[in-house]
Design brief:
The complex is a heterodimer of chains A (403) and B (554). With 403 residues, chain A is of the alpha/beta class. Chain A is built from twelve helices and 18 strands. In chain A, helix 10 crosses helix 12. The N terminus of chain A is likely disordered. Chain B is globular. Classes of the chains: A alpha/beta (403), B alpha/beta (554). At the A-B interface, helix 8, helix 10, strand 18 and helix 12 of A face helix 3, strand 18 and helix 11 of B.
């Protein structure tokens, strides 16, 4: 076993083995904690107690927060996961277990195990942050064994999150096995591309009460859009327009520069508006000749009278798109008619505009930087409970997808 | 006197906005409250449900009186900028500054940019600044002149039209306290502000006022100020800001006490020996000698910050986490506080004043040599006192409070010291060094909570030593929470008064301090000198030593 201290204040140990012993991993973690001055004799688990230095402890303090499991089948993704973890500041997992099933890694033995005790470099008055990372690399053929390693490696009594950064979770048996163990699942539906069938599969993650709570980076990216759309209708006089919406037009990125797509984001906006406003799905989306999709929805007023809402999703084929959505336009027709629009510029701004029968045209630019992976993961790690608004949006959106 | 809570379930499904509405008619000091039912914005907008992270207030204009002052530059403007960047404050949010300096809008914006660049947490780029600065406007005027309010009214109407602020206004008094009453009277006379009782139409526009401490100089002036404010605003529109309550750790005291079953059973006279609350500053009066001469440590710190800390530590569990339920409990415990009076004053209060000395390796001058301080000043820059709380939970448990300037370090903490174990069996096997359990809550810096307990030293002999289990906000959650002003300004815009002081709280706090102030005046109370950089006069140590206790060294 080799051990070194990197300039980034990381202690780590790695070894190859044909027989994986989770006890050996715990022993190594204990040893690394002792290296940084942790109390050997105080406390049930390493790092949980601060002891005054005169009884053998160091200036070590820690309150455990959560376990995170991340799965990757590519070295670049593993590096991305590590980089993201090192930049997290809001709510740091106390222990992260990374499963690397990349077929490109050359191995001498069946398993390659790397145990790290990471330490963020303190700035100013900030205290030192310490967290553990266990990386287990295995041939993809052995991936079926990985789920059995999860429970023995977790810090007990803590919530456990699974972050699946790629889009291959649908139908993946490792995913299915680990999902049963964790409390919350974090995915990015944008990674499912334009595959309507795969997106529709996300609904199955909500159907079973025993399934973990679901979080989606795409939903986080939509936060400013939802805020700004909601703001249009905060004033009492414009809330009347919600009952007269006749059209919803959304332009989304067909291909994003990160290999994702804005299709899932567009669907979620439809699902969100529809579920909040009580719109009913009567038939699935139809492809449009000009590209994109269209679907009619039904809304009813308080007297039960129905009206049609025409929804159009239009792909934007801009090369190397950084955005998920280009434009959302809501058109209300009637006594409280109005047009409410939000457009993403090519920079970090959104332009909002609105004009109603009772208020003049106004437009403004809102600074809205796209959230980084670090920010989105940090946000997700702070959520423990279900988000019923998101779940309702997913349910309606997936109901609109063709079977 | 009867407490009457009328609880109305919120119609909002979003937990961020589901602040309960309640009204109360409880008044310790003889005033009738019309309630502080929070106006929860957007609760009828179905699209607001579930919008997590960001609590977005309705579009509004914040009118800052005294906008050219230090508070605006150091605290308000950076906090408002951070709120804009971190949380998208709504379309139309604007700031109108009022002061006497002859600035144009552009000059105002330039000055505020400097303040924001210095104080904001978020980076300031040309683009982000332009977005923020579009909503900044300036009105020049004398706070006591009628024309100022005519000009302000015209300007607000213009801003309302151009930026669709819907007539919602948050007035902020960042001026010297002597202008509070004149400004409030003019706001009423000019109809810029109007009284909004609990039954007003919540779909219409709102106006609220935020007032900085000091809320008066004594009981009489506090009541007079409250009467002036109450003539124009109803209690539910008034937000008395004490930034200590915006601090994460103070809010975490509530979570610590009432979200855990572990601590509350021992949080009483059966287990607690005494409580110490320390608010220590290493700085002196920093050029505010003129103000401080008339205030002193008791008025400046104890009446406001320290009694707020005491009330959250000692109060009974509120039934709900909302403005009135929380503040009812705080007031109830304050009413049970027994201030020292008459002959007890000398035994239970110690006043001190700093002399020259060294703080953090730097030579500092005596208080009496500070600018604006009278040569023979008897103003206390340090106070230590013992208070009792005469109720079922705390009877017989002393609460020791102390605050001072030019102490060795800046630290605020609350320490709950528990009683010794009733029988020490380890004495039979040798010498033991056993100090009692202590829960200490650090408010600043290094916010966190620590528990001291005894552990056996490893080895063949039985040796006990105290160890400390430490929870630090920074090491668990990484990033610091929002600045206290950010939190409180957002709450005021949202109409959530939970973390603001209510009228009866303020007047009750003054009614506790008044007998002390009067007693000092009547009986005379020495002001003991202490060396800058020390933990205060030795008389304060004596006060605790008489009871077999000692001050902590936080």
């Amino acid at each position: 076993m080799a051990q070194k201290m990197t300039p980034e204040q990381v202690l780590h140990t790695s070894w190859d083995t044909d027989t994986l012993d989770t006890g050996a991993i715990h022993d190594e973690l204990n040893r690394l904690w002792a290296e940084v001055g942790g109390p050997r004799h105080a406390g049930q688990a390493p790092g949980e107690v601060v002891a005054d230095s005169y009884i053998g402890g160091g200036e070590l303090m820690r309150a455990n927060t959560l376990n995170l499991i991340a799965v990757a089948d590519d070295e670049d993704i593993v590096n991305m996961i590590r980089s993201t973890l090192s930049q997290l500041s809001d709510f740091l997992p106390s222990r992260t277990i990374i499963f690397n099933t990349s077929p490109e890694v050359k191995r001498n033995k069946t398993w390659h195990v790397e145990v790290q005790l990471n330490e963020s470099v303190a700035t100013g008055d900030s205290p030192v942050l310490r967290f553990e990372t266990i990386t287990i690399t295995v041939d993809p053929k052995m991936a079926g064994y990985l789920a059995s390693l999860v429970s023995p490696l977790l810090i007990s009594e803590l919530p456990t999150f699974l972050w699946w950064p790629t889009g291959d979770f649908v139908g993946n048996s490792l995913f299915t096995d680990i999902v049963e163990i964790v409390d919350r699942l974090v995915v990015d539906s944008a990674r499912l591309g334009n595959d309507a069938r795969a997106i529709a599969q996300m609904r199955t993650l909500l159907d079973d009460e025993d399934d973990p709570r679901l979080g989606d980076f795409t939903w986080i990216r939509l936060q400013p859009w939802r805020q700004l759309i909601a703001q249009f209708f905060d004033p009492a006089e414009t809330q009347e327009s919600l009952d007269e919406i006749a059209q919803l037009n959304i332009s989304y990125a067909q291909h994003r520069e990160d290999n994702g797509s804005g299709f899932a984001a567009a669907l979620l906006i439809v699902g969100w508006l529809g579920s909040r406003l009580g719109w009913e799905a009567i038939e699935p989306f139809e492809p449009r000749k000009a590209g994109g999709w269209t679907v009619p929805l039904i809304a009813r007023n308080k007297a039960g009278k129905a009206r049609d809402i025409q929804v159009r999703l239009t792909p934007d084929f801009s090369p190397h798109a950084r955005f998920a959505l280009r434009n959302v336009e809501i058109v209300a027709v009637g006594d409280h008619s109005g047009v409410f629009s939000i457009t993403r510029t090519d920079k970090d701004d959104l332009i909002t505009s609105s004009e109603t029968a009772h208020a003049p045209y106004v437009s403004r630019m809102v600074y809205s930087r796209r959230p980084s992976t670090v920010e989105m993961l940090g946000d997700e790690l702070q959520q423990f409970s279900a988000d019923p608004v998101f779940e309702d949006a997913i349910r309606l959106a997936t109901r609109l997808l063709p079977a | 006197m009867s407490d009457q809570n009328r609880l109305r379930p919120s119609t909002a499904t979003n937990y961020d906005f589901a602040v309960d509405s309640s009204a109360v008619s409880a008044d310790h000091v003889g005033h009738q409250f019309d309630g502080t039912d929070p106006v929860v914005e957007q609760q009828t907008n179905p699209l607001r449900a579930g919008l997590r992270l960001e609590r977005v207030p309705a579009p509004c204009v914040m009118v800052i009186f005294g906008v050219t002052g230090d508070l605006t530059a150091r605290k308000l403007m950076p906090a408002l900028y951070d709120l804009t960047i971190g949380h998208p404050l709504p379309e139309g949010f604007s700031i109108v500054g009022v002061s006497h300096r002859p600035w144009s809008d552009d000059e105002f914006r330039q000055e505020m940019r400097k303040a924001v660049e210095e104080g904001a947490r978020a980076p300031v780029t040309n683009e982000s600044w332009e977005l923020f600065a579009k909503g900044l406007f300036y009105v020049r005027g004398d706070f006591e002149a009628e024309e100022t309010y005519t000009d302000l009214k015209a300007r607000l109407e213009q801003v309302d039209t151009e930026r669709r602020a819907h007539g919602n206004r948050l007035f902020y008094l960042a001026t010297s306290p002597k202008y509070y009453s004149p400004i409030i009277k003019h706001l009423g006379a000019s109809e810029l502000a109007r009284r909004q009782d609990i039954y007003y139409d919540q779909t219409g526009s709102w106006n609220r006022i935020v007032i900085e401490k000091p809320f008066g100089h004594d009981v009489a002036s506090a009541r007079a100020l409250n009467a002036d404010i109450g003539a124009v605003f109803s209690e539910r529109q008034i937000y008395r800001i004490d930034h200590y309550l915006g601090k994460e750790t103070v809010q975490n005291v509530l979570a610590f006490r009432f979200a855990n079953t572990l601590f509350e059973p021992v949080w009483n006279r059966q287990y607690v020996d005494h409580v110490q609350i320390t608010v220590a500053e290493s700085i002196g009066v920093e050029g505010r000698g003129g103000y401080y001469e008339d205030a002193g440590a008791l008025r400046d710190m104890v009446q406001s910050h320290i009694l707020q800390l005491l009330s959250v530590i000692a109060m009974e569990p509120p039934a709900l986490f909302n403005g009135n339920a929380l503040r009812d409990e705080k007031v109830k415990v304050l009413r049970a506080v027994e201030p020292p009076m008459g002959d007890e004053l000398r035994a239970r209060t110690v006043r001190g004043q700093y002399e020259e000395g060294y703080v953090a390796g730097r030579a500092v001058e005596a208080y009496r040599d500070e600018k604006g301080v009278r040569p023979g000043s008897r103003t206390e820059t340090y106070i230590a006192m013992e208070l009792g709380i005469d109720n079922w939970r705390w009877a017989g448990v002393p609460f020791y409070l102390r605050t001072g300037k030019r102490l060795p370090r800046r630290v605020s903490e609350i320490a709950i010291q528990f009683k010794q174990v009733p029988h020490l069996m380890f004495q039979s096997v040798g010498e033991v060094d056993l100090s009692p359990n202590v829960i200490s809550m650090r408010i600043q810096p290094d916010e966190g909570i620590a528990l001291k307990f005894a552990a056996k030293v490893p080895g063949p002999t039985t040796q006990l030593r105290p160890v400390r289990m430490d929870f630090q906000y920074g090491s668990s959650f990484g990033e610091a929470g929002p600045d206290a002003y950010e939190r409180l300004l957002l709450d005021a815009m949202l109409g959530d008064p939970t973390l603001f002081a209510r009228r009866d709280e303020v007047e009750t706090a003054w009614s506790l301090m008044q007998p002390i102030l009067d007693g000092w005046e009547t009986h005379g109370q020495p002001v003991y000198p202490y060396e800058s950089g020390s933990w205060g006069p030795s008389k304060a140590d004596t006060m605790l030593r008489r009871a077999g206790r000692e001050w902590r060294k936080p």
